[in-house]
Probable WRKY transcription factor 2 isoform X1
Amino acid sequence: MMEDWMPLSPNARALFSSMIGDAVIGKSVAESSTENRDGSLRVEPDIQVPSRITDQKNEIQNSVVGNIRSQLNPLSEQKLSSRGSLVERMAARAGFNAPRLKTESIGPNDLSQKQEIQTPCLTVPPDLGPVTLLDSPVFLSDTLVMPSPTTGKFSFAPNGSSRNSTLMTNNPDKGKDNLFEEIDALSFTFKPVTESGYTGAACKVNPSSLSQQSILDVNRFFQQTDFSRSSIQRKKSSDNISSEPRNFDAVGSIAGRSSPLDGPENEDADQRVNADPNVGGGPAEDGYNWRKYGQKQVKGSEYPRSYYKCTHENCPVKKKVERSCEGYITEITCKGAHNHSKPLVNGRSALGTSNALGDMQLDTTEQPGTGFSDHPFWPSVPQADWGQDSVELTPLGQEYCNGATSLPAQTHFQFELGDGVDGSSTFSDVEDEDDRGTHGSISLAYDCEGDESESKRRSLLFLLN
DNA sequence: AGCCTTTGACCAGCG
DNA sequence: TCGCTGGTCAAAGGC
């Protein structure tokens, strides 16, 4: 179903995916990593998504997808329909069967009879119109739109006369109201991060209890990620870009979209959510501070390799990061061992920061101070092992490179092992790299502009998850 | 001012 | 020794 979002920017998709927990995210959640004999880590889909939460997410996501699609031009939709499921393509390329969102029970049984509904997840509840979603406060990116709760005014116009007519659909007011009604009904699943890291517990937070500032922060976040109606419209007007398969964060790879950067073809700088080098293999995504000291085009690699050093004094750790044309990490090689603990971030340890994204992680034992090991996107590495001069780890995964061919590129993480280190026995729990840095949904949390914003974004991610 | 990225040059290892 | 390649340095510039 991911192709349903193709016309959207990767950033938007990443964010949306994070928010609604699409099928692929479900896959991410459902997937667990297994350890191969050779020490590499591979993700395998073999864990079921908690049913209740998944059902709610699917319900919302189906509605959202359907509504968004209804806003897209027919051409894009047709192109989308003509493509196979991304999951299927991934499965074909990666050689595993990714779990699919079951949509048979949603909507008409005979979908083939309806051309406009050729892909799953298109059933839209009649009371949840496009405006419900597109006019959601978090979707509004410009100041011309109607006041919204995110602006602190929280007043809806009696009618939608002042809004963009092209996006208007039936029953706008009802849609908006329903948005909050539904949100309220569903409640957010808020997963707090404690000083010691992710607790694994989830608590419900009634949206009404959120502070105005929090809402404003959420809105600001969406604006920064350009996950807005205006961005969608821009995409509509540029089919040459939007119609191409692009990296899908949630599907993706380490996701730390890495923030999936917008491709070079996308010159709209404000849409670059993850143009930050931190995203993915860049500095900070693992809680440490890195300084790039070199970049080189390596023979045999289609992407330039970046060299990073840990900025901590006397810390010998270096890492090499290969990034695709879109900024997705295709390979990370970390060498050395940190001789220091993670720097504090916003009054809390980087560990906490890392775990902000770890709500999909399953019972990962915290390994404070072990570097990547305590990052939700990195496997747990016993301190003793990480203490070696170098550690090598090679989880494999896939990401989808944009570009004309949309060829998949393999994401490759590698920690160089020191002698006597059995990498195969040191890593026990790793997430699907699809959810890691090479894709935006996750990287957003690391795409920090500052401690404050980082903290706010973390909060947002909790809301979205 | 400090830190960062960028990027061309330089260095070392290897065949 | 030479050429190739990967890794690093360091000046310049940006934020």
